[in-house]
Amino acid sequence: MRTYADCFPCFIRQTIIALRQLTDDEGLQERMIKEVLPVIAAADMEKPPAYTTTFLHRAIRQRLGEDPFRNIKHTYNSLALGLYPRLRERVRESAEPLWTAARLAIAGNVIDFGIFTSVDINGSVTRALEPCIAVDDYPSFLAAVRETDSILYLLDNAGEIVFDRLLIEELQASGKKVKAVVKGSAVLNDVTMEDALQVGLPELCEVTDNGSDAIGTILEWTSAEFRAEFEKADLVVSKGQGNFETLCGTRKRTFFLFQSKCEVVSKDLGLSAGSMLLKKS
Amino acid sequence: MRTYADCFPCFIRQTIIALRQLTDDEGLQERMIKEVLPVIAAADMEKPPAYTTTFLHRAIRQRLGEDPFRNIKHTYNSLALGLYPRLRERVRESAEPLWTAARLAIAGNVIDFGIFTSVDINGSVTRALEPCIAVDDYPSFLAAVRETDSILYLLDNAGEIVFDRLLIEELQASGKKVKAVVKGSAVLNDVTMEDALQVGLPELCEVTDNGSDAIGTILEWTSAEFRAEFEKADLVVSKGQGNFETLCGTRKRTFFLFQSKCEVVSKDLGLSAGSMLLKKS
Prior knowledge:
The structure is a homodimer.
Chain A lengths: L6 H16 L3 H16 L7 H16 L5 H24 L3 H12 L12 H8 L6 E2 L1 H10 L2 E5 L5 H14 L3 E6 L10 H6 L7 E4 L14 H9 L3 E4 L1 H7 L6 E7 L2 H7 L5 E6 L1
Parallel strand pairs in A: 1-7, 2-3, 2-5, 3-4, 5-6
Antiparallel strand pairs in A: 6-7
């Protein structure tokens, strides 16, 4: 998808959210916003908004000298790990564990500091487990999983990764080989290898990084190794709005599991904001 | 009040609202947003946000070659005139007509295209006529009106001006001389002489303009004639958030009648967004 006029206020909102993670100094916040306005002015409208937000978050990290989201990512991983035993039980006890785990993976996508600063995870779980969600290609997903031996799983956010763990466990329990992909380095609250280690993912499946600090998966900025993995993958599970923005145009057989959190993406999809999707490419 | 970081996304939102009044051309909208980003980058944080929004609306009018709000102002004046007979009746039938008219003047302030693009005027009227509003200095207002012979009434928005007419009628009915003030030229959906004429205000009271195209009342940009009027006024009735932002620091005896519509102003006041105020300076 492309960038729209309505993305511009959100670019600044994202900047403010990032700055407030690290500093209460209003003067510094205001100077920083003014400093990044040229980054926003240079937005390529033909590219997904994830390009501009990637540049923005790079500029903020560079200027502040550290990753604004490091602490909150750790906190959300811990909080989600606290929910894990009960969620694991819910999956195991359910009539269709893969369905339940897929829905919970969508529920976990509510954790996104690019858009929200507070998270109603219990509300999100309840909504995700209702019979109907806005787009539900689960039957195709089930068929695709059955047909394939290996799955490339593109992770999204900290906290959410614990919910992904539930789905990866179910996929592996059905005999599939899952390779999970984290970001090459810090960007927003996206997971890196540090987060995967915190939630014990490498004990469960192979975890690799995509060599990139981009929001979503901007293929031309990923490592040659990742691109080779992506090319040869039979089936991709893509988590989150950023991955949808950046990968919805590729021809790869992909299932996008996410919540359409912003007005722009929702309008592009013809859905209302807050919609949940398990969407076939 | 000063400008805060949270004003920046709103500066862009206001730009988008203005552009969409005149053009559906997304390419033009996007180019215009990029063109006005330097105006936003130049924001003086020690001044009220109304300074920056004034510069923004000037840049937009200049670039588009016309006033984006002219048609919608006309429409909202007509809509409000349609409500006028029933509202007039409500004022006359009420136990305390001045109280009712003051509250309806606050209700009318919900019409503001700087912040909203849709207006729930009936809901606003209902809320305004409830016994309690967030700040209610009506007893002081009543006393101040009784003590004075003449009132300078700073108008705000189109549509809302019909609600102001109700209050001006009540003030004049109690023997006060009211001078109503419009903007010197077009800015956002603020009233100019054209709007005053459309709603018949000059038949009721003297109407003058402040010689300025600023959001709110930025005294140093108003005409010498207006400043002289303002200086000598015994009592000022100030409508709207823009006038509050720009006049709350003056020592003039003023009553601010408005709805605190944005998060920044509401936080500054210690109120929740959407609060209604009849506030003594």
